């Protein structure tokens, strides 16, 4: 029997990926700076080992044999997912996998200091090598699939999505987003708020974050919260590692970061254990993954109903019981203020798509060879002014150096954020339809039905359905930007 051999083989690879995930978390959160060279070499060696296992010569025979076997429907779905993973891995030579891992590790580690120092010149040489290797990977994948190079990388994060679909989607958003931003700015002129004034000690901020994580159902027996330069969710489903970063003058940014990453974590922690270690048991796509984090951060945490919970909880833990800035109405207004800003991770949900569209346009041009790395700062400034009316001239740390993605070689990832925002609005609308009392439940701190809805419609499905099938099954419709637009208009123009 070939199918059981394939399951065993892929679960062995999953154990190696487990080690890679924890080593990468440690590299970002705990490792002393001097350990990066050796850690980068170790991770590159591990990446090569995983690649060798993923392209083992016997797999071709095993897949051919398994396809002739009498399998159940679930096994056939699993077999297709394993075969896709094998085909993707088999395209790349091992030396390219190892070289890209080393280059990305070096670039990401030095980026942490270079960004802080606004050092574009130092970042440039490292990023140039990462882009060169990413182009090589894209060319190999594109030649095999008969598609464009950027489409080939996009497919790694969003299977089935194409630049043609994205262009149509973003063209739609470009039509209504700029006038909406102007309308919201006008609407909020008479809608003031009080800024919560620090300092807010880090330990109290952490205590607040942990309490909110418990409210959201995070399983601390299978995960933890730490600090890193760039907040992220990593690890594996049985050991999820999420991070945030603290600023004693601003408690809300760290808290919303924790809530965002908790959305990712809950998805991972609730994937079906029966499929653990197999591609079919993993999250469907990064767009679906982002829909979970944005469901938590945007749809839920910034809602009027959640403000009824968050305001008194924050006032108590941060010891601001008599501070009017911690009144529920003010917390809601504070969390739904729209302000054009430089930093993507701090952006409100109205202006956020502008941040993604400019990154999509730049990284696509980079991978397709229509732009060089040296062109990035000027292109970034031009597009930032076009979309958000802000200039980043010579401001690299708040401009083209602010994200970790390109340093890590994650080209094709950024569209997932806006896809996730659209999916999140669509999913929340469907949950409201199925749970008429949902908003009342939220204001009372009862999130059980919402979490059950997500578990049944998204989390437990893992990768047994295509993204389109998953969204249609959960919401009754395919990708539909009108839900996102309606959500923004209801929240920001009311």
Question: Which key features would you list for this structure?
Answer:
single chain; 494 residues; mainly alpha; Neurolysin, domain 3; 2 domains; 20 helices; globular
Summarize the structure.
With 494 residues, the protein is mainly alpha-helical. It folds into two domains: 145 residues, no CATH class; 348 residues, Neurolysin, domain 3, CATH 1.10.1370.
Structure description:
The chain is mainly alpha-helical. It has 2 domains: 2-146, no CATH class; 147-494, Neurolysin, domain 3. It has 20 helices and 3 strands. The chain has helices at residues 2-29, 36-54, 58-66, 73-90, 94-116, 120-145, 149-157, 163-188, 202-215, 251-269, 286-301, 304-317, 328-335, 352-367, 376-388, 415-434, 438-443, 448-457, 467-475, 481-492, and strands at residues 223-227, 233-236, 239-244. Strands 1-3-2 form a 3-stranded mixed sheet, sandwiched between helices. Strand 2 (233-236) and strand 3 form a beta hairpin. Helix 2 runs antiparallel to helix 5 and helix 12 (304-317) packs across helix 13. The radius of gyration is 22 Å and the shape is globular.
């Amino acid at each position: 029997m070939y199918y059981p051999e394939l399951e065993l083989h892929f679960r062995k690879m999953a154990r190696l990926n487990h080690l890679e995930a924890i080593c990468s978390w440690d590299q970002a959160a705990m490792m002393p700076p001097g350990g990066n060279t050796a850690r980068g070499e170790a991770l590159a060696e591990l990446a090569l080992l995983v690649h060798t296992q993923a392209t083992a010569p016997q797999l071709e025979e095993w897949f051919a044999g398994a396809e002739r076997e009498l399998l159940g429907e679930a096994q056939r779905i699993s077999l297709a997912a394993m075969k896709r993973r094998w085909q993707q891995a088999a395209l790349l030579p091992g030396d390219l996998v190892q070289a890209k891992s080393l280059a990305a590790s070096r670039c990401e580690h030095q980026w942490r200091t270079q960004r802080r120092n606004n050092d574009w010149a130092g970042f440039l040489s490292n990023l140039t090598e990462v882009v060169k290797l990413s182009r090589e990977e894209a060319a190999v994948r594109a030649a095999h699939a008969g598609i464009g190079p950027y489409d080939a990388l996009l497919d790694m994060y969003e299977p089935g999505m194409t630049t043609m679909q994205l262009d149509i989607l973003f063209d739609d958003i470009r039509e209504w987003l700029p006038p909406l931003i102007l309308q919201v700015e006008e609407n909020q002129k008479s809608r003031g708020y009080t800024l919560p004034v620090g300092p807010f000690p880090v330990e109290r901020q952490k205590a607040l974050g942990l309490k909110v994580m418990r409210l959201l159902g995070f399983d601390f027996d299978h995960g933890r919260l730490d600090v890193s330069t760039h907040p992220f969710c990593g690890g594996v489903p049985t050991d999820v590692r999420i991070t945030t970063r603290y600023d004693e003058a601003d408690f809300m940014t760290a808290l919303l970061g924790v809530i965002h990453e908790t959305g990712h974590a809950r998805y991972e922690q609730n994937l079906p254990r029966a499929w653990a270690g197999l591609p079919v048991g993993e999250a469907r796509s990064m767009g679906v993954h982002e829909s979970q984090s944005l469901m938590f951060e945007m749809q839920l945490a910034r809602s009027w109903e959640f403000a009824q919970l968050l305001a008194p909880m924050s006032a108590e833990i941060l010891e601001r019981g008599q501070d009017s800035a911690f009144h529920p109405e003010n917390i809601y207004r504070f969390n739904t203020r729209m302000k054009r800003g430089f930093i993507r991770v701090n952006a409100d949900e109205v202006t956020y798509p502008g941040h993604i569209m400019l990154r999509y346009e730049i990284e696509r041009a980079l991978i397709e060879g229509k732009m060089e790395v040296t062109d990035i700062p000027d292109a970034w400034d031009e597009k930032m002014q076009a979309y958000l009316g802000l200039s980043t001239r010579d401001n690299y740390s708040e401009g083209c150096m602010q994200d970790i993605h390109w340093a890590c070689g994650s080209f094709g990832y950024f569209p997932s954020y806006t896809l996730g925002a659209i999916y999140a609005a669509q999913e929340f609308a469907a949950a409201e339809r199925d749970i008429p009392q949902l908003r009342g439940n939220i204001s009372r701190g009862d999130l059980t039905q919402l979490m059950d809805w997500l578990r049944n419609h998204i989390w437990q499905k893992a990768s047994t359905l295509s993204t389109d099938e998953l969204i249609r099954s959960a919401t009754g419709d395919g990708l539909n930007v009108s839900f996102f637009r309606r959500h923004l208009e209801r929240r920001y123009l009311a």
